[in-house]
Amino acid sequence: MTRHILSIADLPIEGQRVFIRVDFNVPLTPARGVADDSRIRASLPTIQHALSRGAKVVLASHLGRPKGVDPALSLEPVGARLAELLGVDVVLSDEAVGDGASKVVSDLREGQLVLLENLRFDPGEEANDEGFARKLAAHADIYVNDAFGAAHRAHASTVGMVSFMRLKGAGLLMLSEVKFLSKLLGSVEHPFLAVVGGAKVSDKIAVLGSLLGRVDGFAIGGAMANTFIKAQGGEVGRSRVEEDKLQTARDFLRRAEARKVEVLLPTDVVAASGLDATSGKVVPANAVPAELMALDLGPESRARFAVRIGTAKTVFWNGPMGVFEKKPFAAGTLAIAEAVASVRGLSVVGGGDSVAAVQQAGVGARIGHISTGGGASLEFLEGQELPGLRALEVES
Questions:
Q1: Which domains does the chain have, with CATH numbers?
Q2: Which of 352, 373, 374, 388 is catalytic?
Q3: Cα four-point dihedral sign 314, 319, 325, 328
């Protein structure tokens, strides 16, 4: 017996109630509009596929980390944006389960859709509560998961309800994510470079270790680079450092050297007195003055990283190179976005901040694959089993 995952295209969804778990966990503006609709847009092919085949579509997602019902985290603005993008009416249920939600779903006709209210308004979602899962399952005949960004969570809508469904499969976005990330774990063109940034070594050390036997080099930036630089004896001033990960960093560098895997670290950084500084100054990465903190790659490091990325045939990028949401410290991350977009081979970008940088740089159309899942993409590349994917498997 082999196990595989069916596509929504393989399922008999015509005239059926189809529950599609989407990832609409998007940032909102202070005026409660959608600040970045890229995750909504990424789900459109699956939703349009279902509607075009006459399915009665029930969409469900979480938004943020509400503690109970929080009107500020209602999916109402998401539903409004979805309606604009689809050009059809989107009915928003005022709850995920209950009499009101059941009535809205039962009133659906073929080619119509409803968006359930924020799943996490009910504690049963994250607790993977069986009662809540059964109520969600009662909304539909067929289950489709298109939320790769939530596939690493064993929640009621990603795992619990699936066993109560007659048929199950993956959406087009989910399948695309698995296809491209699997390429990085299979046979790829070399040189293969992993560009890794962000704040914490602890968040990324597992994926660094997993990729160590696959890549030809790493380019490490962001605050996590400070920990590696200090581990080598550098002075990093007031820069963010994980003191308890210095030995972990040393061990990784030793393992990389033994395998002859290049590890590029910043040689210069843009440093300032704090995050609210209006400008910074370029200093050596291993000699940051005591009163300053490293907040971005320096110009020399940007050039070195870009040249190395330019020689690669396969690039995976996860994590910003600095505090790119602050304009004085955005140049490094934007330079990396441009360099990755110029790769003449396979380029994969994962992680919310990296994706935001790609959008900000306006180079999204030139990236091979932009993953919607930050934590999920990292766990996939670490070789971990994702509960949301496992739940979709069928025997053949």
A1: 3-174 (3.40.50.1260), 187-381 (3.40.50.1260)
A2: 352
A3: negative
